[in-house]
């Protein structure tokens, strides 16, 4: 690793005005929080223990993102592929949103965080949907960090749905295919109201996208860590931000 001075030290020394103008902090960070099951296995614990420990890492990283003035944090919590896991594991995972919100919603509210969600919510159990909807409603007027949970999310599924809806609307409006452009595609995605991610972080050692935000990550910087998600802390998060900042400064020098 290159840096000796953690990013946050130099960041803290800046005044409010400088922070506001620092365009080297990613506005939108997306994270694939991988390695929870392997974290548990390494300790002889059930996989579910890793997922629960993962919740503590989530709140730590949310707080770090708030401190750094990140505008959007998108967390990949449950993919459409995760249904293939044993039913008991899936059932436990789908209780985690409620558990997380029970513990941390008051704190998120006092930090001015706005909760959002992307993915196919309709096929989640109603108790999961209700817990998330409550948190979305309860935080809808907050204008701090947007904490965006990707649940039952799959990028190809998202694109396919967007194409179907778009074709239907275009037929009704009698639009020709030539009128279709990239902006129009973006408007049909779950992320239509969000900026594109500037930085993608994947923990847990794997280096693939796993069907996450395929369209939205076209120009995104990638940062990989071998650390399992439950062990991912503010230290690694700051390393990722510092690495991103150095990349941006290099481009700026060209
Ligand atoms: C398990 C590690 C928070 C990754 C973190 C249903 C996998 C813990 C939420 C959450 C999960 C979701 C929505 C919301 C509030 C919290 C969560 C799931 C899994 C999948 F509004 N952690 N978390 N959701 N894990």
Features:
254 residues; alpha/beta; Undecaprenyl pyrophosphate synthetase; six-stranded parallel sheet; binds ligand V0D
Characterize the structure shown.
The radius of gyration is 19 Å and the shape is globular. The chain has a 6-stranded parallel β-sheet, with helices on both faces. The two termini are 23 Å apart. It is built from 10 helices and 6 strands. The chain is of the alpha/beta class. The chain has helices spanning 7-12, 16-21, 36-42, 47-67, 87-93, 96-110, 126-138, 155-172, 182-187, 234-252, and strands spanning 28-32, 72-79, 114-118, 146-153, 199-202, 221-224. It has a single domain (26-155, 197-245), classed as Decaprenyl diphosphate synthase-like (Undecaprenyl pyrophosphate synthetase), CATH 3.40.1180.10. Helix 3 (36-42) packs across helix 4 (47-67) and helix 6 (96-110) runs parallel beside helix 7 (126-138). The protein is 46% helix and 13% strand. The model is unreliable at 1-21 (pLDDT under 50). It binds ligand V0D. Ligand V0D binds next to helix 4, strand 2, helix 6, strand 3 and helix 7.
């Amino acid at each position: 690793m290159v840096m000796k001075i953690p990013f946050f030290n130099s960041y803290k020394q800046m005044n409010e005005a400088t922070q506001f103008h620092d365009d080297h902090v990613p506005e939108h960070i997306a994270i694939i929080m991988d390695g929870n099951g392997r974290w548990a296995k390494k300790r002889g614990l059930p996989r579910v223990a890793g997922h629960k420990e993962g919740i503590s890492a989530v709140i730590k990283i949310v707080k770090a993102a708030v401190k750094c003035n990140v505008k959007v944090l998108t967390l990949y919590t449950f993919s459409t592929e995760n249904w293939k896991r044993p039913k008991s594991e899936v059932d436990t995972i789908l209780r985690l949103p409620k558990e997380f919100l029970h513990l941390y919603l008051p704190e998120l509210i006092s930090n001015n965080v706005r909760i959002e969600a992307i993915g196919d919510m309709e096929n989640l159990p109603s108790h999961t949907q209700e817990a998330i909807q409550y948190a979305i409603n309860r935080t809808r007027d907050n204008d701090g960090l947007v904490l965006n949970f990707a649940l039952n999310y799959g990028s190809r599924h998202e694109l396919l749905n967007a194409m179907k809806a778009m074709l239907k609307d275009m037929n009704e409006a009698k639009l020709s295919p030539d009128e279709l452009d990239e902006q129009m595609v973006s408007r049909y995605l779950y992320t239509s109201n969000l900026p594109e991610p500037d930085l993608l972080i994947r923990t847990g050692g794997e280096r693939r996208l796993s069907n996450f935000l395929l369209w939205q990550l076209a120009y995104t910087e990638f940062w990989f860590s071998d650390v399992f998600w439950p062990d991912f802390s503010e230290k690694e998060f700051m390393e990722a931000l510092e690495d991103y900042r150095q990349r941006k400064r290099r481009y700026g020098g060209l």
